[in-house]
Amino acid sequence: MEENIPAHIVPLEARQQTEMIGLxxxxxxKAVQQSATYQDAVQIVESECxxxxxxxxxxxxxxxxxxxxxxxxxxxxxSER
Length: 81
Description:
It is built from 3 helices and no strands. With 81 residues, the chain is mostly helical. It has a domain at 38-81. The protein is elongated, with a radius of gyration of 15 Å. It starts with 13 loop residues before the first helix and ends with a helix.
């Protein structure tokens, strides 16, 4: 008995999760590197993490992306001060 489960409910496979986080990290890193201010960089992270949470419901993956994104901001803005 196979049910038709909506695609947005089906969990992502590990490979898909890794690819999705990679895409978001690349996008965040490029945008943060071009950010004019620390506050702009923080806003980029907030926006991208919010978008990610709409695509991926795993709190673990959401926290992982946020931690990586915050590290990207920290590296960019502590090296420029």
